[in-house]
């Protein structure tokens, strides 16, 4: 049920309904109308929630989620996406990074 998924993932029921409305997650409906989620959905929701915490948009997540579900999204893919997100933020702030080394930017 959606409340159980919310408890397992610490994602609000409201957000879970949004993710389902946006076709990021799927449920089966019981005759009484309750939503039932496959156990693998827990990992999908955690991926979505962590991606949101990093500042990624739902359209971005929708693009990457199929690769995550298929086990074809590498750590390097996510690192590159994070670096691109940081670069976007830097441009928005008017920051130009010319050197980046451990302990020095």
The ordered string of helix (H) and strand (E) elements is HHEEHHH
How large is the count of helical segments? 5
Distance between the termini: 47 Å
Strand order across the largest sheet: 1-2
- Indicate the proportion of strand residues: under 5%
What share of residues is helical? Answer: 55-70%
For the biggest sheet, the summary is: 2 strands, antiparallel
The strand count comes to 2
Q: Estimate the global geometry from the Cα principal axes.
A: elongated
Q: Uncertain segments of ≥5 residues (pLDDT<50)?
A: none
The rounded Rg comes to 17 Å
Structural class: mainly alpha
- Summarize model confidence as the mean pLDDT: 87
Describe the structure in your own words.
The protein is mainly α and 105 residues long. It contains five helices and two strands. It has helices at 2-9, 13-21, 40-53, 58-69, 75-93, and strands spanning 28-29, 35-36. A two-stranded antiparallel ribbon has the order 1-2. A hairpin with a 5-residue loop joins strand 1 and strand 2. The protein is elongated. The model has no long low-confidence stretch (mean pLDDT 87).
Layout: helices, strands, pairs:
Blueprint lengths: L1 H8 L3 H9 L6 E2 L5 E2 L3 H14 L4 H12 L5 H19 L12
Antiparallel strand pairs: 1-2
Helix pairs in contact: 3-4
Descriptors:
mainly alpha; two-stranded antiparallel sheet; 5 helices
Short summary:
The chain has helices at residues 2-9, 13-21, 40-53, 58-69, 75-93; strands at 28-29, 35-36. With 105 residues, it is mostly helical.
